[in-house]
UniProtKB/TrEMBL annotation:
Named cofactor requirement(s): Fe cation
Gene3D superfamilies found in the cross-reference section: 3.40.50.360, Ribonuclease Z/Hydroxyacylglutathione hydrolase-like (3.60.15.10)
Lineage, broadest ranks: Bacteria, Bacillati, Bacillota, Clostridia, Eubacteriales
Keyword Magnesium set for record: no
Key words of the record: Electron transport, Transport
Species for this entry: Candidatus Scatomorpha intestinavium
One Pfam entry name: Flavodoxin_1
GO molecular function: electron transfer activity; FMN binding; metal ion binding; oxidoreductase activity, acting on NAD(P)H
Residues of the Flavodoxin-like domain: 256-395
Family under the similarity heading: In the N-terminal section; belongs to the zinc metallo-hydrolase group 3 family.
PROSITE patterns: FLAVODOXIN_LIKE
Protein's recorded name: FprA family A-type flavoprotein
Domain of life: Bacteria
Length: 400
């Protein structure tokens, strides 16, 4: 049975929520589910924007058939070939054999790689600035390469001022019956998941996101329709502001995120004492145990906070594996412009500080605060003064 949402008088959301997915892209836990968005406009011609993941294919087919209300599908626009949106393209093409596929040349090439059915005879290629009319609506196409795949494009409806923004402005989390961001307290209840989605999925490509944001700035926009999560129809500015920050790698908040990797609790103890001393100095602190919290959550807060402290024990002559994984995630996602302090532990040959510094030194705009604090097995009474000094330096730097 269909489950659709009306967005405008002639546009319907025909996507679906998925709450059974454990790991988005096989790696990012989604405890609150995820939505796959698809939009149908019934104009003189009918036009469908993207499809959905195969997990929700049958809900989607029911929704499209209901929203079409017996009409044929004239156009299918493909914005992005990642299978969470593209898996059901072939099925839709077979169900609606008269539909013309609107896509760019890179998408066309990928279609041939993903699907055995030859769809090439049904494709109408578009490039930057091309337009398509369905009657009342006139659409123009905006290329968005590497946001976050090379073939990505957005569509702008010049009639109702709708931006179909592909993965940009999405979030983890199922819609749970809502469709508009203003139906929830997005900035309070959803921003953390939106940040985790952005930083983990798109975070590496800040320069490309900035390029698209510059293009979008020239448009009058009444609705933003992403491929995941809510449609925006008001108060978009605050969320856009976050995107400007995230994509330029500027921290959102002054504060210290402490992530530690501790085997028997001594490294954790040093991290806890530092956190207490920072709090005494009025600094906001967020802590994570890298053995407990998945790196996607910690990466997200590394994008949020201005200062980062990493504390890790030495293990097998390297750094403890959960910290190594986190730091690789952080470097691979291109984080920049952070102030970083390090604490290492090692009972006979501490190495983790040197290795963490080497890895983090590859990030652009990183500055280290203080010297690496070395714990040999357990913190000594005499080292409390060293932690005081580190807390002083961090507090001073946060206040600057
Ligand atoms: Fe939601 Fe890049 O796919």
């Amino acid at each position: 049975m269909h489950c659709t949402k009306k967005i405008t008088s002639d546009m319907t959301w025909v996507g679906a929520d998925d709450r059974r997915l454990a790991f988005f892209e096989g790696v990012y836990g989604v405890p609150n589910g995820v939505s796959y968005n698809s939009y149908l406009i019934c104009d003189e011609k009918t036009i469908l924007f993207d499809t959905v993941d195969k997990a929700v294919a049958h809900n989607f087919f029911d929704n499209v058939a209901y929203a079409l209300d017996g009409r044929k599908l004239d156009y299918l626009v493909i914005s992005h070939m990642e299978p969470d949106h593209a898996a059901t393209i072939e099925d839709i093409a077979l169900r609606y054999p008269e539909a013309t596929i609107i896509c760019n040349a890179k998408i066309q090439a990928m279609l041939g790689r993903f699907f055995p059915t030859d769809l090439s005879g049904r494709i109408q290629l578009v490039k930057e600035g091309d337009t398509l009319s369905t009657g009342r609506h006139v659409f123009t196409f905006v290329m968005a390469p590497m946001v976050h795949w090379p073939e990505v494009m957005m569509t702008y409806d010049t009639t109702d001022k709708i931006l179909f923004s592909a993965d940009a402005f999405g979030s983890f989390g199922a819609l749970n019956g809502r469709i508009f961001a203003d139906e929830v307290d997005f900035m309070h209840d959803w921003l953390d998941e939106a940040r985790r989605y952005y930083t983990n999925i798109v975070g590496k490509y800040g320069a490309q996101v900035q390029a698209v944001l510059r293009k979008a700035a020239a448009l009058e926009i009444n609705y933003v329709c992403p491929l995941h999560s809510f449609v925006w129809r008001r108060d978009f500015g605050a969320f856009l502001e976050k995107y400007l920050k995230w994509s330029s790698y500027e921290p959102e908040e002054k504060g210290v995120m402490i992530a530690y990797a501790s085997v028997y609790g001594h490294t954790e103890n040093a991290a806890n004492i530092l956190a207490a001393k920072l709090s005494d100095r009025g600094v906001k602190v967020q802590m994570y145990d890298t053995s407990v919290t998945a790196s996607s959550f910690i990466l997200s807060d590394a994008f949020k906070y201005s200062h980062l402290v990493f504390a890790a024990t030495t293990y097998n002559a390297g750094m403890f594996s959960t910290m190594e994984h986190l730091l690789h995630e952080i470097t691979e996602h291109n984080l920049q412009k952070r102030k970083i302090a390090l604490i290492e532990n090692g009972s006979w040959a501490p190495m983790s500080g040197k290795l963490m510094r080497e890895l983090l030194s590859t990030l652009k705009g990183v500055e280290f605060v203080g010297e690496t604090l070395t714990v040999n097995s357990a913190l000594t009474e005499g080292q409390l003064g060293d932690l005081d000094a580190l807390a002083d330096e961090l507090a001073k730097s946060v206040a600057e």
